[in-house]
Amino acid sequence: MNTQVTKGIKISVVTSFGGTFFKNYRMHYAFEYLITIENQSKDVVQLTSRHWQIFDALNETEIVDGEGVIGKKPVLKPGESHTYNSGCLLLAPLGAMRGYFNMINFTSTKKFRVYIPTFKLGAPFALN
After folding, report:
1. Residue 105 pLDDT class (50, 70, 90 cuts)
2. Are 21 and 111 in contact (CB under 8 A)?
3. What is the pLDDT of residues 44-88, one digit of tens each?
4. How far apart are CA 84 and CA 70, in angstroms?
5. For all residues of the chain together, what is the average pLDDT?
6. How confident is residue 125, by pLDDT bands cut at 50, 70 and 90?
7. pLDDT at 32 exceeding the cut of 80
8. Three-state SS for 80?
9. Dist CA 80 CA 43 (whole Å)
10. What is the CATH number of domain 2-126?
């Protein structure tokens, strides 16, 4: 598990390999990740958007920006957490991801970034 705390918001990531399959005549490697966002601060916060950098050992870096996470913009009171599952496809059996969540603090009305720790993606058969 990878974890990182930014401004009282703890991000934890657990990854797993989902298997291989052919798509458009190419082999793809599916990876899943479980992210928990835990509010350890004293303020109510809301996740508004996300930014990902997806590194593929055989491909260029892919940038993904979007609203919320899996269609939600969770509001977290102090001590609350939000967990969600997502995934990505790579052309290589090895890669990594990192990024950040854009959030707003309801007490101060200030926007801030919460960094997601870099996490590796690796098919078990590709790791020694």
Report:
1. very high
2. no
3. 999 999 999 999 998 889 999 999 999 999 999 999 999 999 999
4. 8
5. 95
6. confident
7. yes
8. coil
9. 11
10. 2.60.40.1470
Structural domain boundaries of the chain?
Answer: 2-126
Alpha helices (H) along the chain = none
- The distance of Cα 110 from the centroid of its chain, to the nearest Å, equals 22
d(CA 10, CA 57): 28
Nearest partner of 121 among 85, 91, 97, judged by Cα: 97
Query: 51 to each of 25, 54, 93, 102, how far by Cα in Å?
Result: 29, 10, 23, 8
- Which residues on adjacent β-strands are paired with residue 38? 10, 81
Question: 3-state DSSP: the chain helix, strand, coil percent, rounded to 5?
Answer: 0, 70, 25
Of the candidates 117, 118, 119, 123, which has an alpha carbon nearest to the alpha carbon of residue 94? 123
How much of the chain, in percent, has pLDDT values that exceed 90?
92
Which parts of 26-93 are beta strand (E)? 26-39, 45-56, 62-67, 75-76, 81-90
Instruction: Give the pLDDT band of residue 128 (cuts 50, 70, 90).
Output: low
**Contact by Cβ (8 Å): 63, 53:** yes
